[in-house]
Amino acid sequence: MQAASAAPSAPILCVTTNPAIDITYTMDELRIGTSHRVETGLSRAGGKGVNVARVLHQHGEPAVVIAPIGGPVRVLFVHDLDRSGIAHRLVEVDSPTRRTTAIVTPAGTTNLNERGEAISADDWDRLLAIVRAEAPAARVLVSSGSLPPETPGGFCASVVEVAAAAGKPVIVDVGGEQLRQAMAAGATAVKPNRHELFDAMGGADPLDAARRLAADGTGVVFASLDVEGMLAVLPDGRAWHAQLDHVLDGNPTGAGDAAVAALALAVAEGATLEEQLARATAWSGAAVLAAQAGSIVDAERLAARIRITPIG
Predict the structure, then answer these.
(1) What superfamily would CATH give domain 12-28+41-311?
(2) 257 assigned to active site
């Protein structure tokens, strides 16, 4: 008698308020003010929440992208998600979805990110309604990425409240006042980068800013600091620092998204705080080694090279 297969895991919901078509060009050199003949760029559905879903999907974990989508790139966006095997619940809107371009050279990565266009109040209501409908069946909710113009104040806090009503953990990766509101609303974790942290809290010391943000809520602040690693800070001020034992060369686009994917999965699995921090740091580094955002390479090897230090 054949054994029954294990039931699939519940998905991680990835709310992406400002999706994009991501285009990546890899070149030997970028010379400003001249023409370049390049190989065909890599083009696929993107935005931070989509990249989170891609990393989870690569790891064999089900994820659902929830996003507004519109304009000429809608067909390409949907086709790419379907081809990638990533589930989605999309709100069709009138506003065209933006594009982002990453130009990767040995000297570094240049990013050209369209701001995106505003969507209507009805579009926001429909987006949140989908989140509310899908939340009870999810393992974790993620709300991440830039916000389009005229985003309603408190939208990310509303996602946190939906997750709480469904009894689900929620991770938020956003900047500015929306970050503070999400933390105060009870987010399980937030993951700002250095710029987003200072934008929300002011100051110039990431540890101090992370402690002030953490004190506003009940969850954990994971602050990514590029080559300087990552902080984890609790509301009572206790903190840890994680860092790879060497600096990686590659494309940092998508490193923060990989960290959020790692946190979402670690939280879903009930991992300890130090395990969450170590995995997020390793997956962030593994994204730097990948050719395009939404992928990770050598994560297990990097995990063995993470140092975690308590901060007094």
Answers:
(1) Ribokinase (3.40.1190.20)
(2) yes
